[in-house]
Structure formats: C-alpha cells, structure tokens
Amino acid sequence: MLEDVLQEAERRMKKTVEHMRDDFSSVRTGRASASLLNRVMVDYYGAPTPLNQIASIAVPEPTLLVVSPYDKSAIEDVEKAIQQSDLGLNPVNDGNVIRLPIPKLTEERRKELTRLVRSKAEEGRVAVRNVRRDAIEDLRAFEKDGEITKDDLHRGQEEAQKLTDRYVGEMDEMLKVKEKELMEV
Predict the structure, then answer these.
(1) pTM of whole model > 0.85?
(2) CA 59 → CA 4, 21, 70, 145, 182, distances in Å?
(3) Quick one: DSSP state of residue 60?
(4) Among residues 104, 111, 133, 161, which one has the fewest Cβ atoms lying within 10 Å of its Cβ?
(5) Fold entry, domain 34-101
(6) 53: closest CA among 32, 64, 37, 76?
(7) 126-129, long-range: CB within 8 Å, 24+ apart, which pairs?
C-alpha cells in the first residue's frame, strides 16, 4: 500500500516534469528549433490539427525554420495558423514552403521570456507539492483505517519529501539551463 502510493506519486511527478520540459521547449530563444511549432494547430479541412502532422519542419540554419506542408493546398491555412500563434514569427510563403526567419530577441523580450519560464517553473513546483500533499493524505487515511502503522506513515512522508525534493531540483536545473539559453546573445 505504501509502495503503491509512492509509485503513483512518483509517476505523477515525472509527468509534471515532462509537461514543464514540453512547455520550456516551446519558448523561443532566438535559435531555430522545430519544437517551437509543437503547439501550433492548423484548421485543416475544418478540424484543428497539429502542424507537425500535416507538414515537415526543417532547421536548415540556426535562425530559420522551413515548413513544407504535405498537402500544398493547405499552405495558406498553415501560414495563417503560424501568424495567429503567439510566437511572434512572420511566415514567408513562396507557394511551396513557408520560411520562418527567427528574429534576434530584444533585451526586453528576453526578460519577458525569463519571467514566463520562471512562472512555468513555479507552477511545476506547486504541482509537484500538490502530488506530495495528496500522497501524504492517502497515507494518513490508510494509517487512520489501521492499514499501515505510524512508522509506515512517517517513512512514507519522508519518501514523499525525498521524491518532491528530487523532482523540484530537476525543475530548478531545467529553469537554470533555459534562463541561460534565453539570456545568451
């Protein structure tokens, strides 16, 4: 029972870290990366479709993305979706492919993005702490019902705290790397 609660808590914490990693990968750093377009949804024949399912995305240069829709008739829908995204990119459509030059980040935009990643990191920390709280509540309920001993409860709380510290540390490390990446000129 104790192990089940801790395994579930660890699974949920890992998921939170992965979610934060995905969030961070979609934050633009002045360097081209295909993951920038992960969240772009295209209205493709009336259905919202992820861009990476209807087009290939290449990074021929450090400051350029090239999007090649598999269906050339959808090129204008793809262009429109990129313009409407919050990425601040200006697509250049030549009829076959869409080029996305990645502009250099201004100092103000760098600071803004740093604040954004810090807030995402804090949301992640809070989510991990909530998982810990849920696990401890479950353990307390088991102890109250007599299914585990007070010693088991105490050990479970310590283990939950160790998991929390480990995953929060991982998130802090990811934040440090992303901030360094953002402030690089």
Answers:
(1) no
(2) 44, 20, 17, 58, 19
(3) E
(4) 104
(5) Gyrase A; domain 2 (3.30.1360)
(6) 37
(7) 127/16, 128/13, 128/16, 128/17, 128/164, 128/167, 128/168, 128/171, 129/164, 129/168
Distance between CA 84 and CA 27 in Å, rounded? 16
Q: Where are the domains of the chain?
A: 2-25+106-183, 34-101
From the list 181, 128, 136, 127, the residue with the least C-alpha distance to 157 is: 136
What token pair was written down for 67? 């999007």
Place of tokens 């961070």: 24
Cα–Cα distance between 73 and 168 in angstroms, integer? 46
Question: What's the fold here for domain 2-25+106-183?
Answer: Topoisomerase I; Chain A, domain 4 (1.10.132)
d(CA 112, CA 28): 11
Q: Binning pLDDT at 50, 70 and 90, where does residue 121 land?
A: very high
